[in-house]
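re: that chain from earlier
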Amino acid sequence: MKLSPIAIGLALASVGVAAQAQSSVTIFGLIDTNVSHFSASGSGSVNQLGTDGNQSSRIGFRGTEDLGGGLKAGFHLEAAINPDVGTGGSTSADNLKNQSGGLTFGRRSTVSLMGNWGEVRLGRDYTPGFWNLSKYSAFGTNGVGSAAGIFYPLKARITHVRASNSIGYHLPKMGGLFGQVMVARGEQAGNSDGNVAGARVGYAAGPFSVAIGTTTTKIAALGDFRQTNIGGSYDFGVVEVMALWGENKIGDSKTRSQSIGVQAPVGKAGEIRATIGTVNATHIGNDASHFAVGYVHKLSKRTVLYTTYGRVKNKDNGTAFAVADGIGATSPGGSSSGIQFGIRHNF
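^ sequence. v structure.
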C-alpha cells in the first residue's frame, strides 16, 4: 500500500503532537537590578548599580517527560547572572571552595525521577539547611533587607545554600507534610572532606507553616560545619507574621540568630515588609542586630518595583557583620546601612 506525502505528513505530525503532550521544556528567568547606596562606620559610602535586591537574577531550563504508569523524568538547569555587568555566577565542584567562569549552572543542576512515592534528584541542589532561611524571612535572602547577613556562617560559607554531587529525596504530597533528605560528596581521595548530609521536615496547612532543617559538612581544616534552623509563619490575611531561629557551628565556634518579620498587603498591588533580628556569637566574631523595612509594588504579574532600607549594628567593639551586599564597618562596634531602589522582571 502506497501512502501519499500528505498522509505521511499527517502521520508524522500526529506523532509529534503525542510526544509533545507527554513532555515539556521551559525556558525561564529573572532580572533584578537596583540602584544602591551603602555606608559604614569607618568605611565611608558608595553608590552602585547592583543586582538581586528583591530576588536572585537567573536564567534556566527545566522540563519533564511522562514515562507512563505515574512515573516522570525531569531536569532543571539554573544559572546565576549579574545583569549589572553581564557575567555569570559561580559553583563549587568539591563543596569546599568556589569556582567561577562563564555561565555555570551553579544555582541548580539536577535530573530527577518522580512518582507517587516522591522524587529522587541527582546533581547540584539546595541543601536542607537552607530552605527555612528563605521561606521564613520577610525579605528572603536577598538585598539589604535580608537577614542572611546574620544567619549565614562567618566562615566555611560554601554549602550553607547548595551542595554539589548530591543525591536527594523529596517526600510526595502527604496532606500538609513535606520533607527532604540529602547526601553529597566532596569526592576527595582518601578522606571525607566536602561530604554533606542533611534533612528537613515541615508541615503547612492553610495559613500556617512550620519546618526544621539541618545540614552538616565535613571540613577537616576547620571542624565540621553544621547549620540548623527552625522557622514558622502564619498569614492573618491583613498581615503575615514569620519567625526564624538558626545556629551555625564550626568546630568550637558558633553563632545563634533569631528574627521576626512581617509582610502586609497594601491595596491590590503593594506590600510592606519589615524585620528585626539579632545574632549572638561564641568564639567567633561578635554580637549584632539587624533592622529593615521595605515596599514592593506590582506593575504586572511579571514586573515589580521595590525599595528597601536595612541597617546592621555590631556590638562589643566588633566589625564582623554588615548589611547584605554592602560594605562593612571598620570602626569597632560600628554599623553599616544600605538603601536600594530596584526593578524585577520575570520571564
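The two ends are 49 Å apart (CA to CA).
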